Amino acid sequence: MKWKKYDVVVVGAGPSGCAASKILKNSGAKVLLLDKYGFKKNKGCGGGITPKALKLIKQIFPEIELKANSVNCLEIRYVHKGLNKEVCRFSFSSPVFHVVSRSEFDMKLLEAVINNGVKFSRERVRSLKEHEDAIVVETDNSCYLADYAIVSAGIFGSSLLSREFSQKYSLIVHRKAKKTSEEAALTFFENGYAWYFPGFEHASMGAGVYIEGKESFMLSKNNLMLASYMDEDLKITPIPSFSLEFLYEVNRFMEGCLVVGDSAGFVDSWTGEGISYALYTGAIAARTILKYRKTRLNERFLNNTRPIMENLVMALGLRNSFIRNFPDKVELIRDKRFARLLFSYLSSFSKNLFRLVLKSYLVPRSKVQIV
């Protein structure tokens, strides 16, 4: 049987896969994009599009008009020893983030990629294997041959390379709810967080914890109730834990195969945000393939994503510092300097805390008010 041959096969049509596919196609590559769900995909996500994610969307998908609700006000609360306390409210002169329907957002990205000429097929991928100087992508229906592959298939995408890979994760709970306020809210706990994000038509609410494994489900559900949010019709979604060791391991496993987004654990350990990292790593994977081809491709990709890794290491440190001496650290949020720091953190990638603090001083004082 003769296998269909492509320059690049991209597995997974989320933000990272669509970003990579579009950039590759724009440069003349023959690309196949595979996803088992296609347009009918429900994503477990708060739907928050940060300013840094929005910049990437505009760069890669300028033709897309986002149906989003802009959030300018953010309430901060914490729950400790039965006390549910409001800390402060931030009012930003420009949106601190935007809220979208993840299913609609992903559908728009996929439509843009297909309209751009990328070949898309709704198929479940079974495995990726090396074959001579190429990669064989096996699906339920067929086999494809590619010079390069990009795995952007969500949290369990690494299992397509080897069943021995076991990515650590925690479970968040979330639901679509009636919109009761235009203000977003974050409630912190000693072990995690809960959110209320007002979308364009509905609100997203949910909770997560900084604890890995199956026990995180009940802890997340408990946090949701403690935050006074209803726990009916909950959906469960695994969120990958960021690990440098895992990220390097999966991206050195198969030459010519790059693992991006959630599949490699490119997710913020503090905020849980992953869309900007998915878009960024998908774009870097595509550009690395176009520039370096077979010349130490995987190592080049890891080098090119080093600034993102440093950002995620910083995020992990910030999270650990934030929950240390809880809730005293949460009370420090009242300081206007923290509000500017938060705005800077959500607006751009920073390699270390010094650069983040420096950027925050460039945020005009008029940009944020504490009310």
From TrEMBL:
Residues 5-135 form the FAD-binding domain. GO terms for molecular function: FAD binding. InterPro entries: FAD-bd, FAD/NAD-bd_sf, Geranylgeranyl_reductase. This is FAD-binding domain-containing protein. It comes from Kosmotoga pacifica.
